[in-house]
Amino acid sequence: MTHHFILRVITKLLIPLILLFALYVQFHGDFGPGGGFQAGVIIAAALVLYALVFGLNTASAVIKEWVLLVLIPLGVLIYAGVGVASLLLGGNYLDYNVLAHDPVHGQHLGILLVELGVGMTVAAVLTTIFFAFAGRGHRDANGNLLPHSALSDEIRNRKDGQP
Amino acid sequence: MMFFVTVIALFPAMFLALGRAIVGPTLYDRVLAVNSFGTFTVLMIAVLGFMTDQTDFVDIALTYALINFIGTIAVLKFFVVGDFGYEEQRDQ
Fold first, then answer.
1. What ipTM, to 2 d.p.?
2. Least CB-CB distance to B85: which of A4, A33, A138?
């Protein structure tokens, strides 16, 4: 038996659908509402839901914090790299037309890469903010997350507190 | 016309939920009221989308439903446990 059985089952059921919807928003952004920022927020929402239900330690085992800290600049680098690539190919900064032989294909490729970078950065930043916010009191002096058994009594006793 | 009637019918329900969120004697009344208000908002977005023939609104309604669920979980966890990162332990 575990605590909150229904919540755990529903969460496990819901997270793949949330991630699928995030991918839909990401790649359908050319034709409807959506795009990189919104998709990143939805991916971060899935990770936040996982961390809320299964705890911060489990969530940081799913996605390591150093991975998030790599993803943040990597997304910005992809965005800026597309701009520099179009500069080097003879266009203006972020001029997608020169990225492929056909300007229409260039536009598709450019917006896809740029939105990918935006999505990565936004998802990683929002998840990092949540981890930093929820991890207060859960870290040792070096900033590493403490295992549950090592948490201070104050935090572990909060569970018994009545609202 | 049918969608318009639905929008009109949703308003009293939303105001009742809002009233319960303000009056609600306990925390759980307020959480439930805010959750139902969010559900009504999802319905409202979907109905308004179909009324104005903008079917893209269904995407927004879906997103709102997901965020509403996660927000409710977060509020409940914060008030019951007092800590967002707390890890539930298995019963012995």
1. 0.84
2. A138
